[in-house]
Amino acid sequence: KQEVTQIPAALSVPEGENLVLNCSFTDSAIYNLQWFRQDPGKGLTSLLLIQSSQREQTSGRLNASLDKSSGRSTLYIAASQPGDSATYLCAVRPGGSGSRLTFGEGTQLTVNP
Amino acid sequence: DAEITQSPRHKITETGRQVTLACHQTWNHNNMFWYRQDLGHGLRLIHYSYGVQDTNKGEVSDGYSVSRSNTEDLPLTLESAASSQTSVYFCASVCNYEQYFGPGTRLTVT
Predict the structure, then answer these.
(1) Do A98 and B90 touch (CB under 8 A)?
(2) pLDDT in tens, B68-97
(3) Who has greater pLDDT, B98 or B22?
(4) Residue B58 exposed, middle or buried by CB count within 10 Å (0-12, 13-18, 19+)
(5) Among all residues of chain B, which has the CA nearest to that of A1?
């Protein structure tokens, strides 16, 4: 059974800092990995999708990498801002799962002004 | 703009009542999903559908049912609500391998 772990569970940084969020998964047979952002009381917003054949994806100040063989992904946020404060979730689409996703529990990020 | 909506956004019900949560998407996506989100458990899959008349059980399907009579809607029914079903429920649909989520329904069972 695929399991997804995100470390740390919570992170507090000063504004302007570059930071890395980690995601690990137990079964490397995945189709893709997706990073989401969730604001309090809101739904999930897709940030980046990395296919299993890709090594990284970039969107603005966000960069996500994927090392499928080691079961790891990182989300790099450059020059963090208070507006980046949210919970960040990663999810993997396991092989043979159709479109179903397995989620980690998320990293709660606070960026202090 | 195409979107995915959920209703109601908040619901309080009593134990034993039947409750239906609505999910509607205007993208014409075939694949739709229902998740529940609980502290300490993250998001867990309840039911999913890959098209009209297709429904499948997820990892926490006991006490829930879905039906898919058209592409746009996937209602989630709690047959007899229990306090353990107090949660936030999210509906999602998939396009080009990417999942898009609705705003969620906060359900409280008293």
Answers:
(1) no
(2) 999 999 999 999 999 999 999 999 998 888
(3) B22
(4) middle
(5) B59
